[in-house]
Amino acid sequence: HKKACKQTVRSANVAKLAESGEPMLKVVEREGSGPKVEAGQEVEVHYIGQLENGTVFDASRPKGRTFKFVVGSGRVIRGWDEGILSFKVGERSTIYVCSDWAYGDDGIPGVIPGGA
């Protein structure tokens, strides 16, 4: 039941994103207690990259390490560069990103379908 519930919540949030016309939707799971992240700041995150159907295409925890990047540097998808700017240090959130702010119409062949 837990997996079905997660799929229902994920589908509802994807629908909210589509209805909003916005490029991104953030759902806060745990508020951060630190300062808000700023452009140019190096951040260290754990992440799960998932498709709308729940398929995980990448994740940091199985690799046993966090992922570090400088916010706003263009090293990651635009959804991350823009989305992380709304985080506070210590926050845990899920970001739903439209394809334009993720991997676009081309996707990543064999990993992420175009338009995902």
TrEMBL record:
Transmembrane segments: none annotated. The keyword Isomerase applies. Its EC number is 5.2.1.8. It catalyses: [protein]-peptidylproline (omega=180) = [protein]-peptidylproline (omega=0). SUPFAM superfamilies: FKBP-like (SSF54534). Pfam families: FKBP_C. It is an enzyme of class 5 (isomerase). This is peptidylprolyl isomerase.
